Amino acid sequence: MVKSLQETVTLHNGTEMPWFGLGVWKVEDGNEVVNSVKTAIQSGYRSIDTAAAYKNEEGVGQAIKDSGVPREDLFITTKLWNADQGYDSALKAFDESLEKLGLEYLDLYLIHWPVEGKYKDSWKAMEKLYKEGKVKAIGVSNFQVHHLEDLMKDAEVTPMVNQIEFHPKLAQEKVRAFCKDNGIQVEAWSPLMQGQLFDEPVLKEIADKHGKSVAHVILRWDIQSEVVTIPKSVKEHRIKDNADIFDFELTQEDMEKIDALNEDKRVGPDPDNFDF
Length: 276
Known about the structure:
By secondary structure, this protein is α/β, with parallel strands linked by helices. 38% of the residues lie in helices and 15% in strands. The strands form two sheets. The protein has an eight-stranded parallel sheet with strand order 3-4-5-6-7-8-9-10. Helix 2 crosses helix 3 and helix 3 (87-101) crosses helix 4 (119-131).
């Protein structure tokens, strides 16, 4: 049982990645992102997840610098945006992200979306960065099974992580099974389905039973489903509260009830049908 914010899962290359972190999608650069990341780090979070597309890497970097926590104790993720995919452009985009973050290396670099005809070249660039030690782990985001199979046909390094939309209404069973079989760690984005699950009766009932909130139950379910999770919030009390999931455990029956809520329903774009 995962008992603290600092607990990690070991990726297939031996890198330790925290089970729980802060996502900063749609968090404004400047004070908003600096404050939320600083609050998170001061509250014990060690994993921060950003992306070039979020346009807040500089603020994240500032917060890391201001936090006073040694760099090696933190786990920082950013992502390669679609417009920068391709071999040379990916290498350039990585350098730009690193410069904005003010870091010497990254812990995890992800291909943000499976852009057809480009993600293989992007992956070659990721492998180069990985071999040069500029990033401790490389992975993908929003990849379906067929994307992973296609990528791995020619890859020298198997992705360490696949970050996907995952919540009780979207269980992603096929992707998760494939990742498990291939040693790829699954990570959830939008774990709380952008607030759309807070009135779900099954979740409310389980939450009441444990004296917890629905958010706590969902985030605990993620971790007990062996999925790394990075809920996003800009509110100080919410950032602290989201992490309050390490003092209880869902029963097998709780887990099965939550699993049964799946409707294969997305709130984000479909990785097989996006145009950005």
